[in-house]
Amino acid sequence: MAEWREECAVFGIWGADRASELAQLGLYALQHRGQESTGIVTAHDGRFFVEKGLGLVADVMTPERLARLPGRQAIGHNRYSTTGGLNLTNAQPLTVRFRGTEVAIAHNGNLVNARALRHRLEESGSLFQTSLDTEVFLHLMAQADGSFEERLGEACLQVQGAYSLTMMTPEAVYGLRDPHGWRPLVLGRLETGAHVLASESCALDLLGATMIDEPAPGELIRLDARGATRRQLLPPGPRRACIFEHVYFSRPDSIVFGETVDRVRRRLGRRLAEEQPADADLVMAVPDSSNSIALGYSERSGLPFELGLIRNHYVGRTFIHPTQAVRDHSVRVKFNAVTAILDGKRVVMVDDSIVRGTTSRKLVALVRKAGAREVHFRVGSPPVAFPCFYGIDTPSRHELIGARGSLEEIRDFLGVDSIGYLTEEGMKACEKSPEGWCDACFSGRYPIPPSEELEKLSLEGPLAARPLAGTR
Predict the structure, then answer these.
(1) Which helix H or strand E contains 155, and what residues bound it?
(2) Where are the alpha helices (DSSP H) in 168-219?
(3) Cys-Cys crosslink for 426: which of 131, 140, 271, 468, Cβ 3.0 to 4.6 Å?
(4) Is it true that domain 262-459 has CATH number 2.60.40.10?
(5) What's the rounded Cα separation, in Å, for the pair 253 and 387?
(6) CA angle 204-182-37, nearest 5°?
């Protein structure tokens, strides 16, 4: 379980009875991608109906709220705030009315030129109601000419960055990926003939929908009474799929970027065992996102896989720590080390990534307190040394342990006997093709350069002046 913060989920459905209930189920399957707010918009008899709230899908989308969402078409969104503050105003989908038509939009990703576009739009008289880069799409569309699809295309030609969108008018539901295919999106169909769009295929599985495929970068999907129609709205650019979707973000049972995530992660674990072996008694994962990588490590190394850490799945991001004493035990609230498994053992502890390192350090301390004789930390990705500008809320560079410390310093900070990362070459070798991936958080090679303002805020930092606390 890395310390990354989840990004967003989008969902769309057309042609289904009780569309809001199916949207709720789809968003529930995608809860791992965003836990701060959720929202659903439906259309019925030419009108939009909206329900949004802060918190988890199951808490916000109550039966009473779903009953207020009539219609056979809907879009939905789960949010983690990569931009904009945590408040109901910033909860998606956003809804507006311009040129006599209601429009709703939900967005997963991040625009690197959003601030410049927003400034230009404000100078020309646009009034923004949120602090979201998502709203930029709507204002650019309002200033364009032509049909809805032509205005959308014109808006997208002006933005730079990552986005998978679901949008809705009273007549149709739309899905669109950016020209580089940064963020995932899948298209499926129910037995009833209804069509579904979702960030990951696990949402289709929950609904009993058959996956058709993943829309191509720049491809627009329109769902309406004719079914699903497709057109290449934007010229595709070089493919830049986010490799961290495979490392951490996506659910292991999802098909993302053409492959089941669990299969990729098992290959990562096997390659990690080859590159970073350890003389130990057992392999354990930092649950849950690292389970598949740890299983792959176990398979290749021949060491038994054990459940050395048990995660409490009933603790969410909204857990409140009322006192300092409880805050000090926050990791213990979520995890418990199994003494009967760990006592006296040499342990390979596998995680998918390390960001700040603070949670990893606490978990290592739990494992040692349970009696582990040695702890060898293995990471199924290279060191995270650069922030992401494309929809993942990573810290500024001077907070990233991979940018601040050497391997020896990171080892000492975590309190482990050894540490080993997967190489960048090894990580890409685990994909069907080593080309076409965005790995900027590891390499610092940004396919679309961030604005100077973003770069100054996130890339600069007195690294040398911020030693790792606790290093020897």
Answers:
(1) helix 148-156
(2) 201-207
(3) 271
(4) no
(5) 27
(6) 60
Q: What count of other Cβ atoms lies within 10 Å of the Cβ of residue 318?
A: 11
The pLDDT assigned to 303 comes to: 98
Would you give the distance in Å from CA 431 to the centre of its chain? 19
Closest to 151 measured CA to CA, from 108, 101, 201, 88: 101
Q: Which residue has the tokens 């191509």?
A: 216
Q: Which residue is associated with the tokens 């207020």? A: 68
Nearest alpha carbon to residue 422 among 360, 375, 379: 379
The answer on pLDDT for 64 being more than 60 is yes
Specify which residues 437 forms β-bridges with.
241
Amino acid occupying residue 87: N
**Spatial separation of the C-alpha atoms in residues 421 and 398, rounded to whole Å:** 20
Choose the CATH number for 9-237 among 3.40.109.10, 3.60.20.10, 3.60.15.10, 3.30.420.10: 3.60.20.10
What share of the chain has pLDDT > 70, as a percent? 89
Can you tell me the distance from the alpha carbon of 318 to that of 329, in angstroms, rounded to the nearest whole number? 16
Question: Which of 28-37, 75-84, 198-207 is predicted least confidently?
Answer: 75-84
Residues ≥6 apart with Cβ < 8 Å to 398: 404, 461, 462, 463, 466
Cα atoms in the Cβ-side hemisphere of radius 13 Å centred on 309: 33
**Of 211, 230, 112, 98, the residue nearest 160 (C-alpha):** 112
Which pLDDT band holds residue 313 (cuts at 50, 70, 90)? confident
Contact 162, 183 (CB under 8 A): yes
Note whether 441 and 244 are within 8 A (CB).
yes
User: CB-based contacts of 16: which residues, under 8 Å, 6+ apart?
Assistant: 22, 72, 73, 190, 192, 194
Residue linked to tokens 């494309």: 390
Report CA dihedral (197, 173, 97, 78) to the nearest 10 degrees.
-10
Residue 75 β-bridge partners: 12, 41
CA distance 351 to 358: 13
Delimit the domains of the chain by residue range. Answer: 9-237, 262-459
Identity of residue 7: E
Alpha carbon distance 352, 285 (integer Å): 9
Q: What are the backbone angles phi and psi of residue 345, rounded to the nearest 5°? A: -100, 155
Report strand pairing: 374-379 vs 418-421: parallel
Least confident of 117-126, 247-256, 444-453, 455-464: 455-464
pLDDT-derived band of residue 87, with 50, 70 and 90 as boundaries? confident
- Residues designated catalytic: 8
What's the mean pLDDT in 405-426?
97
